[in-house]
Amino acid sequence: MEMSEDDNNMEEYPTEIHDYLTAFEKSLGSVDEMLKTMMSVSRSDLLQKLDPLEQAKLDLVSVYTLNSMFWVYLATQGINPKEHPVKQELERIRTYMNKVKEIADKKKASRLDKGAASRFVKNALWEPNAENEHISRTPDKGKKRQRD
Fold first, then answer.
1. Across residues 37-56, what is the average pLDDT?
2. By residue range, what is the domain housing residue 43?
3. Are residues 70 and 95 in the same domain?
């Protein structure tokens, strides 16, 4: 998929977009590699290794990627994707992605809060020890009397 020098001469395009086209070509190569990797593993084998939340994340990322690629395809065909049903589909998927993120955050927060609360309570409780026991018996020690 690499552009040769002959291809550049045959197809003229504004030089200002050359860097964009080069970056786009590299991105396509990365997508191609990722797809090959994903396709090399059976979906059922992959899902067996994931918990339900991770499975949902994988499904959402997959469907979002597919719809995003369709968005790009529409744009290359001169169709405005903002006026196509794919826009609503991407918004719907984003809504579910946000819900999954909230669930993951709550799951993570509940674990952290429990430990943090335990430490907070433990550190907040004052226990006298040998060093500071004399302070509790003689609270006025070290204070000077005021003279009138």
1. 87
2. 17-49
3. yes
